[in-house]
Prior knowledge:
By secondary structure, the chain is α+β, with helices and mostly antiparallel strands. Helices cover 43% and strands 19% of the residues. A hairpin with an 8-residue loop joins strand 3 and strand 4. Helix 3 packs across helix 7, helix 5 (202-210) crosses helix 8 (257-277) and helix 8 (257-277) runs antiparallel to helix 9. It is globular and about 60 Å long.
Amino acid sequence: xxxxxxxxxxxxxxxxxxxxxxxxxxxxxxxxxxxxxxxxxxxxxxxxxxxxxxxxxxxxxxxxxxxxxxxxxxxxxxxxxxxxxxxxxxxxxxxxxxxxxxxxxxxxxxxxxxxxxxxxxxxxxxxxxxxxxxxxxxxxxxxxxxxxxxxxxxxxxxxxxxxxxxxxxxxxxxxxxxxxxxxxxxxxxxxxxxxxxxxxxxxxxxxxxxxxxxxxxxxxxxxxxxxxxxxxxxxxxxxxxxxxxxxxxxxxxxxxxxxxxxxxxxxxxxxxxxxxxxxxxxxxxxxxxxxxxxxxxxxxxxxxxx
Length: 306
């Protein structure tokens, strides 16, 4: 299946069961109307766009009614690759209201949303909370056509079988359908065990290529025990996993990949690891912030949403 074709129609019974399950389990709005102009602008942002990652965010962590759905344009490495990566832009991403947000604001809202879900379901590890789902460009276009170009809403459902929060596209204010799901849930981006270049995180790849695997354990310990408890830590946690797939894709396409990975390892990984080992967590966090900000500028796609 081509990346642009990911997503498919689901039955009314599927929608009703998942929609009802979400409403009984979570204290969050269960329907968000998506501005058609925002949908079209995101799909047409670039020829690289293969679809949209409908990403959940919360603007105000104290207000459940501040739920936002960010329309993140995504590309993929190959035409038939089920994996996808957000296109990095330091300028703006559109939400369901057509309001613009920079990449740091997007990641802040994602972190707020995940923290809220985590507070309602404390048995879920932070990293495993569903951030949204990807639907291919062609599937979205076919779906909009199937509802006679009427307004589109994103309904939140819950899959009791696998524990995923699932976004379901449907016509606004019409619970009779048709409905589209069968997208690709997000994450996974990186796996803690057996990470390879198929689970693309640039730091992980650099460590695997250039050093010992156990260095990753040091990074994971910092992530889980310090980063997620630090002020703004969740924002930069989300930012790393948001930008990593595209960076890994760009690196893999370059002729001097090994040289680039050695630079990342020597200039980024080693100093960061040394700070963590010395328990200089605040300095390590500042180093991480600076690194991620520089990567956003270095790897951004300037045409997105211009």
